[in-house]
Amino acid sequence: LAGVHDVRAGDRRLDPRHAAPVPGAPTARGVWTLELRADRPLHPERLVAEVARLGRGPHRSRGHFWVPTRPDSVCVWDGAGGRLSVGALGTWGRQPAATRLVFTGVEDVRADLLAAFDDVLLTADEHARGLHPWLGADDVLAPWLGDRAA
């Protein structure tokens, strides 16, 4: 396998921080892929309230997101067939915080997913207020992500 298998590329594909659509992936027979990206975080309370809109359905999803109550935390998203797992992976380090979720499915629910994603994102006005008000707020994601680091 020496010289044939790119170990770094393989490791990168497993890392949720690098989730991306497969270039040239087929879209025949009703298969679709949707990439949802934003530099704004997800609103924690709206995420909890609306998670079923994004996590339920006949699709596969994976990627990463961030929330303003945990600005340094990389949050992982991994879903399949109506089941969703979220967790904390570590910190962003030198990489800027971002949200990137990739969905692939067979029942065309792309418009619904896009609407749900827009509803869950912090609005431009909320984001413009900065992160300071969020840092002391209750962490509604603690049951999913564990306790916040002090």
UniProtKB/TrEMBL annotation:
Coiled-coil regions listed: none
Signal peptide per UniProt: none
InterPro entries: CobW-like_C
The name this protein goes by in its record: Cobalamin biosynthesis protein CobW
Chain residue ranges for the region called Disordered: 1-26
Domain CobW C-terminal stretches: 31-121
Residue stretches of biased makeup (Basic and acidic residues): 1-18
Record lineage: Bacteria, Bacillati, Actinomycetota, Actinomycetes, Micrococcales
